[in-house]
Amino acid sequence: MKDFNILKKFCQKIYFVGSGNFWYEEDIGDDRKMIYRIYNVLLFFIYGSMTILEIFAALLGDFPKDEKGDCVTFAVSHTIVMIKMCYVISNKTLIRKLNYDMVSVCEEFEETSLQKKKYYNIKINLIAYFVTVYFSATCFVFEGLRKVKEGSHFVTIVTYYPSFEDDSLSATVFRIYCTVVLFMMLLTMIMSVDAFTMVNLIMFKYKIMTLRRYFEKISEDFKEMHKINRRLAVENLATGLTKGFQVHKELLRILKDIDKAFGFVIALQLFQSSGSAVSLLLQIAISEELTFVGKLKIMFFVIALFFLLGLFLCNAGEITYQSALLADSIFYCGWHECLWEYQPKGKKIGQMVLIACIQAQKPLVLKAFKMIELTYGTFLLVIKTTYSIFALFNAQSGND
């Protein structure tokens, strides 16, 4: 499946979940229509209201230990989710332009085999993340049903209203309403922010791989043609290199747009995954009353947080790794076999290759808040640091 089809279908789903039209054309839908604006405002008002009630519950609410822990976790997580969604929507103009660039750049170099791998990669990662998130949410529902069976009330999301003692019909209806809102919010979060960011990172990674294969192909073509017609081989190599260098320049510009559009999202996820994971793991370690389902819901929440962070950082790290291979592909194109008299006027192949190699040797590294490098190493560091902090707090609580 081509990038055009992948991104357009994705933008259709984003439009459906109420975040607006991120496609660079209007054929998906007009998000400026009054009825869609009402839908958009109403949806985010519902999400925002629930998040505010969670924050009040965390700060002012009087709940049992397990509900208080869930309350704090959801209040922090959903606040970050709201910030991420608002940030992405505020960059809609930039993202629409980015979608156009992602579709058009490298289009003529695309290989069917690489396109299939890219689509499979996106599909598998998206399904795995979707299942992890919703299985975690389902565990919260099962825990709520277990409490009902034991004579308590049903609850998944803990909000300031209703209070813990309130078991009236209106309170029950509101708790069920919050559960429905949670599942809706998760869908909007996945499609509009998390998966959308992941898709752009994977696509850009494959753009770099496509460009690298292109340089390798023109090198092979040059070697074959050089045996038959040296002048034509040199001319074709010069033309091919010029085209490849222009695409590389475009990719460098697009990466800056990706950083502007999604860099803040990745940075927030970095802190959310590590901070929330410590809090959640401590709930398991400290609490002696957690049921199996209770532990399961927390573990899958932690897995979902780190799985998303892994998707972000590992794909960002893969961009750095693949871009580091470009310099070799450019250098070994066969420029040293190009005789001076055969080179087109104004196109000194050796000089062009030298400049391109210098540019390609600068690693393409995305950074959180322009400080923390988003790479494989950072992902491993976050996991180690999270466990170290958890072990420290757990040891201190054990001594107390």
Automatic annotation (TrEMBL):
It comes from the Eukaryota. Keywords: Cell membrane, Membrane, Olfaction, Receptor, Sensory transduction, Transducer, Transmembrane, Transmembrane helix. The keyword Cell wall biogenesis/degradation does not apply. GO terms for molecular function: odorant binding; olfactory receptor activity. Its main location: membrane. It is found in: Cell membrane. GO terms for biological process: signal transduction. Pfam families: 7tm_6 (PF02949). It is a multi-pass membrane protein. InterPro entries: 7tm6_olfct_rcpt. The chain crosses the membrane at residues 38-60, 72-90, 126-145, 174-203, 261-286, 298-316, 374-393. GO terms for cellular component: plasma membrane. Belongs to the insect chemoreceptor superfamily. Heteromeric odorant receptor channel (TC 1.A.69) family. PANTHER family: ODORANT RECEPTOR, ODORANT RECEPTOR 19A-RELATED. This is Odorant receptor.
